[in-house]
Design brief:
The protein is an alpha+beta fold. The protein is built from ten helices and 18 strands. This is HotDog ACOT-type domain-containing protein.
Length: about 450
C-alpha cells in the first residue's frame, strides 16, 4: 500500500482479537457460552503486547516497512528535498469503542476511562507514521531515513477520555528544521453535549522526531514544509518559537552557575530535610522525605517491544514510565490519582533489545495553592544498566503531573497531600530545576 498524499484517510482500528462469541471461530479448545454460542478460551482474549493501533499502522505502512527492512544495496540518499504540506502527512485513526467490545476491553482502565499509558504508546506510533509520510520521497531506489523519537514537547489532558465513546486521533507535521520534524496530535472525543470541534479535543501532544542517515547514522536533511491555511501557519510559528526556546534553555543551562539567590533557595529546601535526618522525632508530620516516595521497576527489553529499526519503541518506554508514575502517585496520595500532563521528555540514548532497563520514580514536589486541585509532580528516570560493564546510563527522564480524582477526594473530607522535602543537595537541585522549568512554561502561557 503506497501513501496517497492527495487524500488523507482515516485508519480504522479494530481489536486484535475477534469477538469472543463469534460463531465463525473454530477452535477445538473453545468453550460453549450462553445460548450455545462458541466462546474463545480466556487465554485468547485481549493481551497481545502490540496495541491495535500499532498493528493497524504497521499494516498501513507495510510497503514502507519492506523498504526499511530490506533497502537496496548501496542505495544512494535522497538527492533532492521536496516541499510538502501538512495535509500530505495528515493521518487519523479511529477507535470504534461503541461497536467493538473487545477493543473497549483492551483499552479500559478500572475507572471506565481509556488507559493513558496505552494511549501514549499509540501516540508515539502514529507520530512515527506521520514522520515517515513527510520524509518519504516516493523513490524506492534511494535509501530510507532512520526516524527516531527525539523528544516529547508536552502532552496535556484536557478532559477525561471515556472508553465507551468512539475516539479519534488526528495528527500531521506542523514544523520542520534541518533534520527534525515537529508533529502535533489531537485526541478527539465528541458527545451529544460536546458536538463543537474545539470542545471535543481531549488531549494534545507534540512529538519531535529526528532523521538520521540509515548507513552513516549522521543527521540527515528532511523534506521542507509549506503551511497553507491560517491555522497551519499559526502552528508553524508556534512550533518554531518552541524550537528557539529549547535551544535558548539549553545554552542557559550549560552556562548557568549558582548565584547567591540560588544558594539561598537550595538552603531553604534543605533546611526541613535536615530536621528529618538529624531530629526525625521533631519533623513535620505533614511532610515526607523525597527518598521515601521512591518506587522502581526493572525489566529486560524483549524483541516483541522493538520497532522496525530494532530499537525499543519510545512509546513502550512512555507506557511503562506512566504506569510507574501512576503507581507512585497512588501510593503517595492514598487516593486514586488523575493524570494531567507529561512535560518535555528527551530521549537521550536509544534502548536496544536485550538491555536491562531500570525505571525509578519519586514524588519530586507537591503544590497546594489550589486546595481543590493539589498537584503531585512525579519524576521517572529510565536507566540502561549493563552489569557486565558495571555501567548505568540515563536513557530518559519523564515528568508527570497528577492530581487526585474529585470523587475520591469528596469521600475523604480531611484529605491533604503531604509536602515533599529533599535531604541532599543533589535532590534539591533536581527540584529547583523542575520548578524553574514549570515556572518558565507558565509564564510563556500567560504571555500568549
Amino acid at each position: 500500500m503506497e501513501f496517497n498524499s492527495s487524500s488523507p484517510r482515516t485508519i480504522p482500528v479494530v481489536s486484535t482479537f475477534a469477538n469472543p462469541f463469534d460463531n465463525n471461530f473454530d477452535d477445538t479448545n473453545s468453550l460453549t457460552g450462553v445460548n450455545g454460542q462458541t466462546r474463545k478460551p480466556i487465554a485468547l482474549w485481549p493481551g497481545m503486547y502490540h496495541s491495535p493501533v500499532t498493528n493497524a499502522l504497521w499494516e498501513t505502512r507495510s510497503k514502507t516497512f519492506e523498504r526499511f527492512l530490506d533497502p537496496p544495496k548501496d542505495a544512494p540518499p535522497q538527492s533532492e528535498l521536496l516541499t510538502k504540506t501538512p495535509k500530505q502527512s495528515r493521518t487519523s485513526i479511529l477507535y470504534s469503542f461503541s461497536a467493538d467490545h473487545i477493543l473497549r476491553e483492551q483499552y479500559r482502565d478500572p475507572w471506565n476511562e481509556v488507559r493513558i499509558g496505552k494511549l501514549l504508546e499509540d501516540l508515539d506510533a502514529l507520530a512515527g507514521t506521520i514522520s515517515v509520510k513527510h520524509c518519504c520521497d516516493d523513490d524506492n531506489t534511494t535509501r530510507p531515513l532512520l526516524l527516531v523519537t527525539a523528544s516529547v514537547d508536552k502532552i496535556v489532558l484536557k478532559k477525561p477520555i471515556s472508553v465507551d465513546i468512539d475516539l479519534k486521533i488526528v495528527g500531521s507535521a506542523i514544523w520542520v528544521g534541518r533534520s527534525s520534524i515537529d508533529i502535533q496530535l489531537e485526541v478527539l472525543q465528541s458527545t451529544k453535549e460536546t458536538s463543537d470541534t474545539s470542545d471535543s479535543v481531549a488531549l494534545i501532544a507534540n512529538f519531535i522526531f529526528v532523521a538520521r542517515d540509515s548507513m552513516t547514522g549522521k543527521a540527515a536533511p528532511v523534506n521542507r514544509l509549506s503551511p497553507e491555511t491560517e491555522q497551519e501557519k499559526l502552528l508553524f510559528e508556534e512550533a518554531e518559537a518552541r524550537s528557539k526556546l529549547r535551544k535558548k534553555k539549553k545554552k542557559v543551562e550549560e552556562k548557568k552557575e549558582f548565584e547567591n539567590g540560588e544558594v539561598n533557595r537550595l538552603e531553604a529546601l534543605l533546611a526541613e530535610g535536615r530536621i528529618f535526618c538529624d531530629m526525625p522525632a521533631l519533623a513535620d508530620r505533614d511532610s515526607i522525605l523525597l527518598r521515601d516516595t521512591h518506587l522502581e521497576n526493572s525489566l529486560i527489553c524483549q524483541p516483541q517491544q522493538r520497532n522496525i529499526h530494532g530499537r525499543i519503541f519510545g512509546g513502550f518506554l512512555m507506557h511503562r514510565a506512566f504506569e510507574l508514575a501512576f503507581s507512585t502517585a497512588y501510593a503517595f496520595a492514598g487516593l486514586v490519582p488523575y493524570f494531567l500532563e507529561v512535560d518535555h521528555v528527551d530521549f537521550l540514548r536509544p534502548v536496544d533489545v536485550g538491555d536491562f532497563l531500570r525505571i525509578k520514580s519519586c514524588v519530586l514536589y507537591t503544590e497546594h495553592e489550589d486546595s481543590e486541585k493539589p498537584l503531585i509532580n512525579i519524576e521517572v528516570v529510565a536507566h540502561v544498566t549493563r552489569p557486565e560493564l558495571r555501567s548505568s546510563e540515563v536513557s530518559n527522564t519523564f515528568y508527570f503531573t497528577f492530581t487526585v480524582r474529585r470523587e475520591a477526594k469528596a469521600m475523604n473530607n480531611g484529605f491533604r497531600i503531604r509536602k515533599v522535602v529533599p535531604a541532599t543537595e543533589e535532590e534539591a537541585r533536581r527540584v529547583l530545576k523542575r520548578m524553574d522549568a514549570e515556572s518558565l512554561e507558565s509564564n510563556k502561557g500567560k504571555s500568549k
